[in-house]
């Protein structure tokens, strides 16, 4: 019953956000980019935090002082579906995502994602995937921080699957800082118990920014391995 109630509660919050979505779409282009981004981001962040709290989950954020004002590429491991809500609700910085094209079919949520400058990828279409990189670079250059999950799919555990290097081109082409973020515990909220939602203790660990002059000589596969190692070590240090 709890799982059904969480989904119902989430649906009510999403439907209730429609008037704010309409207002977000009407924000004039003359408004400075980050001011506009913060206005738009407030509602998805608030909804996400309310849903997470409803599950009776505790979230601890470590390293928030390492966040910087400029646009960055956040590189995260991907344990579960709730990763996105945790990032939206607790990172305290406007972010967009590289998302599967199937999400475009979800009413209201897909429209909010468009406002957040998310880009949608069709993994079966290589040419379309290249276009996604171009769109993501454009968002970063405009001032929007982006999130990628280089594993490509949920691990559904504390294990970190191999990072694929292709999506890192968003950061290297835009020449923005790259910040690793370790998400730990979200798989316990849904994936661990056959799709039943339950509370968990989550830790979101923000790593040190890696600036362009630090990674410019690195090959993408080496950069991917370096970021994966940071995240794996952070999980190991937590005692998982």
UniProtKB/TrEMBL annotation:
Listed under GO biological process in this entry are:
phosphatidic acid biosynthetic process
**Domain of life of the native organism:** Bacteria
> GO CC annotation: what is one?
membrane
Q: What is its EC number?
A: 2.3.1.51
Using the record's annotation, list all stretches that form the Phospholipid/glycerol acyltransferase domain. Answer: 72-186
Keyword Transferase set for record:
yes
Give the SMART domains listed for this entry. Answer: PlsC
Which EC class, in a word? transferase
| Catalytic activity, as annotated | a 1-acyl-sn-glycero-3-phosphate + an acyl-CoA = a 1,2-diacyl-sn-glycero-3-phosphate + CoA
Functional pathway = Lipid metabolism
What Gene Ontology terms describe what this protein does at the molecular function level? 1-acylglycerol-3-phosphate O-acyltransferase activity
What are the protein's UniProt keywords?
Answer: Acyltransferase, Lipid biosynthesis, Lipid metabolism, Phospholipid biosynthesis, Phospholipid metabolism, Transferase
**Listed InterPro entries:** AGP_acyltrans, Plipid/glycerol_acylTrfase
Xref: Pfam families: Acyltransferase
Description of its domains: The HXXXXD motif is essential for acyltransferase activity and may constitute the binding site for the phosphate moiety of the glycerol-3-phosphate.
Q: Which family does it belong to?
A: Belongs to the 1-acyl-sn-glycerol-3-phosphate acyltransferase family.
Q: Which protein are we looking at?
A: 1-acyl-sn-glycerol-3-phosphate acyltransferase
């Amino acid at each position: 019953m709890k799982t059904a109630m969480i989904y119902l509660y989430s649906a009510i919050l999403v439907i209730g956000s429609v008037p704010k979505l309409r207002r977000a779409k009407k924000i004039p282009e003359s408004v400075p980019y980050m001011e506009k981004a913060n206005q738009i981001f407030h509602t998805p962040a608030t909804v996400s935090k309310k849903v997470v709290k409803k599950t009776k989950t505790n979230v601890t954020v470590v390293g928030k002082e390492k966040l910087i004002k400029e646009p960055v590429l956040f590189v995260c491991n991907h344990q579960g579906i709730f990763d996105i809500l945790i990032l939206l609700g607790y990172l305290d910085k406007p972010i967009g995502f590289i998302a599967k094209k199937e999400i475009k079919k979800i009413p209201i949520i897909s429209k909010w994602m468009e406002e957040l400058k998310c880009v949608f990828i069709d993994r079966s279409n290589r040419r379309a995937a290249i276009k996604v990189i171009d769109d993501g670079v454009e968002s970063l250059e405009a001032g929007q921080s982006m999130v990628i999950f280089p594993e490509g799919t949920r691990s559904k555990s504390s294990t970190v699957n191999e990072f694929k290097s292709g999506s890192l081109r968003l950061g290297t082409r835009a020449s923005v800082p790259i910040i690793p973020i370790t998400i730990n515990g979200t798989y316990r909220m849904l994936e661990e118990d056959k799709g039943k939602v339950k509370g968990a203790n989550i830790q979101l660990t923000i790593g040190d920014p890696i600036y362009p002059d630090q990674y410019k000589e690195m090959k993408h596969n080496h950069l991917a391995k370096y970021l994966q190692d940071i995240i794996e070590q952070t999980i190991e240090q937590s005692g998982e």
